[in-house]
Specification:
about 100 residues; 2 domains; about 55% helix
Length: about 100
Amino acid sequence: MKKISVKEYARLNRVSIYQVIKRIQRGELQGVTLEENGVKVNYVVLDEEGESPGDRPKEKEDETMLPAAEDWKKEADLADEIRRLREEVARLRAVVERCCG
């Protein structure tokens, strides 16, 4: 097992140090705190392959799943809301034009 500092891990994976600390706290990454020269230093523990156990990608089935019927309904509701808001904006522009223009 190899350990690298949280800062180095964040740099390698192009995420913030804050995100790395949160992932350690949630258990997504394995971390260890050591005291060096009187200062506590956080490390991410990597396995032999160079990645943390929680770092492995999830199954690809999750990515290819079709949205549920509820999601389609939400999208339809959002489309209706957008249409309604556009009509309201057009109506308000006409009022402003009559009033001020």
